[in-house]
Amino acid sequence: IEEAEFLYEYNNEMTDIILAYDGTLDRYDKGNIVAFFGDPVHHEDHAERACAAALDMQARLSAHWGEDTGLRLRCGLSSGQVVVGDMGSRYRADYTVAGDAVNLAARLVQVERRLGAAITISQDTCAHVEEVFEVQELDRITFTGCGQPVAVYEVLCRRGELDEEKAQLLRHYQQ
Fold first, then answer.
1. How many Cβ atoms sit within 10 Å of the Cβ of residue 18?
2. How far apart are CA 155 and CA 175, in angstroms?
3. Sequence-ordered list of residues with C-beta below 8 angstroms from that of 104, at least 6 positions apart, any chain
4. Per-residue pLDDT tens digits for 57-115
5. pTM, two decimal places
6. What DSSP string runs through 93-162?
7. Are 51 and 135 in contact (CB under 8 A)?
8. Per DSSP, what are the bridge partners of residue 37?
C-alpha cells in the first residue's frame, strides 16, 4: 500500500512537469514514466522542452523527497523520426509512439546504471540543445540494433547555471 501511495504521488508530480512543457504522457510502467514531446502538438523546440522537463523532474525529486532517500532520476532522451498514433486494437486504444528513436531512448536510460548520469541524451538530441544546456559527452556506445556507435551525452544544467565546483569537476572529467 505504501508503494502504491508513493507511486501515485510521484507519478502525479512528474507528470505535472511533463505536461507543463507540453509533453505527451504515454504510459506508466512499474515506476517508469514514458512520455514524448513534439506530438500531437508540434514544437520546434521539443528537444529543449524534454531536457528542461527532465531537469525540473530531477529538481522536484530532490526537493520533495530529499537526496538521502536513494531515489534517482534516470531519463533517456532521443530525437528522430517516429510513428505516433493509436497502436492498440479494437478492444483497447493505445495512443503511443514507436520507432528507432524510442528504442534508443529506452537504452539510454540504462546508461545511468553504468555511468552514473541521470539525464542522458543521444547525439541527435544534443545537436538540438547544446546551445541551451550544459552537456558533456560521456561515451560512444554501440547499442543492439544500432549499426554505428552513438555519442551519448549527459545534460548537466541550463546554460549559465553551472556552479564553479561542477565546472571544475567537468574540466577534470574532460581531461
1. 22
2. 18
3. 76, 78, 80, 122, 143, 146, 150
4. 999 999 988 777 778 889 999 999 999 999 999 999 999 999 999 999 998 988 877 77
5. 0.90
6. --EEEESHHHHHHHHHHTHHHHH--SEEEEHHHHHHHTTTEEEEEEEEE--TT-SS-EEEEEEEEETT--
7. no
8. 23
